[in-house]
UniProtKB/TrEMBL annotation:
<keyword id="KW-0813">Transport</keyword>
<dbReference type="GO" id="GO:0008320">
    <property type="term" value="F:protein transmembrane transporter activity"/>
</dbReference>
<comment type="similarity">
    <text>Belongs to the Tom20 family.</text>
</comment>
<keyword id="KW-0812">Transmembrane</keyword>
<dbReference type="GO" id="GO:0005742">
    <property type="term" value="C:mitochondrial outer membrane translocase complex"/>
</dbReference>
<keyword id="KW-0472">Membrane</keyword>
<keyword id="KW-1133">Transmembrane helix</keyword>
<dbReference type="InterPro" id="IPR023392">
    <property type="entry name" value="Tom20_dom_sf"/>
</dbReference>
<keyword id="KW-0653">Protein transport</keyword>
<feature type="region of interest" description="Disordered">
    <location>
        <begin position="16"/>
        <end position="42"/>
    </location>
</feature>
<keyword id="KW-1000">Mitochondrion outer membrane</keyword>
<keyword id="KW-0496">Mitochondrion</keyword>
<dbReference type="GO" id="GO:0006605">
    <property type="term" value="P:protein targeting"/>
</dbReference>
<protein>
    <recommendedName>
        <fullName>Mitochondrial import receptor subunit TOM20</fullName>
    </recommendedName>
</protein>
<dbReference type="InterPro" id="IPR002056">
    <property type="entry name" value="MAS20"/>
</dbReference>
<dbReference type="GO" id="GO:0030150">
    <property type="term" value="P:protein import into mitochondrial matrix"/>
</dbReference>
<dbReference type="Pfam" id="PF02064">
    <property type="entry name" value="MAS20"/>
</dbReference>
Amino acid sequence: GYAIYFDHARRNDPQFRKKLRKEKKRVDRSNASLKATAASEKQLPTDAELDAALQVVRSEDLPATPEEKEQYFMQNLALGEQLTAQDERIGLTLPAALSFFRAMRVYPEPLQLVVILEKTLPEDLFKIVMDLMSRD
């Protein structure tokens, strides 16, 4: 009964339609403001945090053989992808960027990898990876 009443009101009553449009606009505005606040709350790492993370990565030993390098590359690339997927929920931007940076350090043609990462990674994460590369 309610479905028939509301369908009839939606089709025939101009005030009811206007009220629905107004409510939809209000909900859309509130969703937009929530997205804007969520984006502003997402903090990028500071210079000190990046420098400290870079020191940790520099202190790690790089693999010697090509097989070890390939395994290291694939392991860090997979870890970076996992952390990127989880980043939306718990904020793992720096660890994901470090994983991609570690993978880039052992890749034979880093510029090719940069082009691929630029197309696939979120903008803020790619910016952090590039910042780490420029500091290294």
